[in-house]
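Late entry, NDP complex.
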Amino acid sequence: MSGLPVPPPLGTAMLPAGTFAGQVVAVTGGGTGLGKAIAVEFARLGAAVAVLSRKPEHHAKGVAAIEVVGAKAGAFAVDVRDPEAIAVAFDEVEAALGPVDVLVNNAAGNFPQPAEDISPRGWRAVTDIVLDGTFFASTEFARRARAGGRPGAVLNIAATYAWTGGPGTAHSAAAKAGVVNLTQSLAVEWAPDGIRVNGLAPGLFPHEDVPPQMRADTPEGLASLARTVPAGRVGSPHELGWAATFLCSPYAAYLTGHTLVLDGGNWLRRGLRMPDFLPVREQFPPPPDAKDRS
Ligand SMILES: CCCCCCCCCCC/C=C/C(=O)SCCNC(=O)CCNC(=O)[C@H](O)C(C)(C)COP(=O)(O)OP(=O)(O)OC[C@H]1O[C@@H](n2cnc3c(N)ncnc32)[C@H](O)[C@@H]1OP(=O)(O)O
Ligand SMILES: NC(=O)C1=CN([C@@H]2O[C@H](COP(=O)(O)OP(=O)(O)OC[C@H]3O[C@@H](n4cnc5c(N)ncnc54)[C@H](OP(=O)(O)O)[C@@H]3O)[C@@H](O)[C@H]2O)C=CC1
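Prediction complete; structure with ligand written out below:
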């Protein structure tokens, strides 16, 4: 299988240089993985970028990656589940970099587990981070943009299982479905204020920062994961950066309420004859150090 062509390499620009010059972009979870790749692409296009997340080691990674491309960066401690902490973080971003023009709701928590094994606190942790966090940060952003008479863009990172559900993802998929739906409600409410709200749904984008159960660590593991995708490969994080910057750019000025799927055709791969069905417990056996919840 040859699949689709490979993407241009990291560092190749899609939008004109300076597309986000003079703008401030806040990326929740911007210190790791896909959020970091998105933050870097905005930085490359001239934005000052704020990383909003909990852990100092992630702040340092994000700021270093943004500064390497010559952009202004700042990191701000916040748990997106706490609306008051979000307000404080926005105050801090404004003081350090200026008012936020673009918000990327990328922060997420996830761990694959059969639904009936997810504890109430585990359910709440995932759904609060993904759905409530997206709502709290978006509304804080919109209140400020509207008060300042500024237009803006919000980008919500979803997942393709938001539409299908899937084994091991009851909490995450339900929350991401809420995010896709919220994207539509906020888009129609805020369009008159010049605030666009779109979504971006990644397929398989393995990288070193996701928890071990969601990584493919070996070349063989990666190759076998790639064979599951119609396009014959997994995604590269910088491809998400291109899609994210496009959706928030003036080239998408008339686009709002849309969630773009970027997955090499993976969520459409269902055939008339599928491979043998594998129950969730065989797909995600508990890790050896798992807590006994019986
Ligand atoms: C086979 C190869 C496949 C390769 C696939 C490639 C990539 C596929 C990617 C698929 C889609 C990915 C979507 C994503 O969202 S990736 C993002 C993942 N990133 C993270 O999750 C990072 C941040 N995560 C966290 O901070 C935590 O995991 C957590 C979400 C739980 C939030 O942390 P918090 O500090 O608030 O919570 P606690 O640690 O206090 O825990 C709260 C309760 O949750 C339970 N818990 C936590 N982790 C697990 C686990 N791994 N398994 C089961 N339960 C867990 C914890 O026990 C607490 O509950 P209890 O008090 O009842 O014990
Ligand atoms: N990787 C993939 O293949 C896929 C990823 N996605 C989505 O892409 C996005 C990025 O995921 P990815 O980069 O892979 O995963 P990571 O685990 O690398 O990123 C998650 C980020 O969220 C931050 N975060 C977690 N909880 C909180 C919180 N309570 N408050 C603030 N920040 C928080 C973390 O920072 P900190 O710990 O410092 O708080 C971390 O930087 C997520 O929305 C995910 O659901 C969707 C489909 C597939």
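The chain has one domain: 24-265+278-283. Will revisit in the morning.
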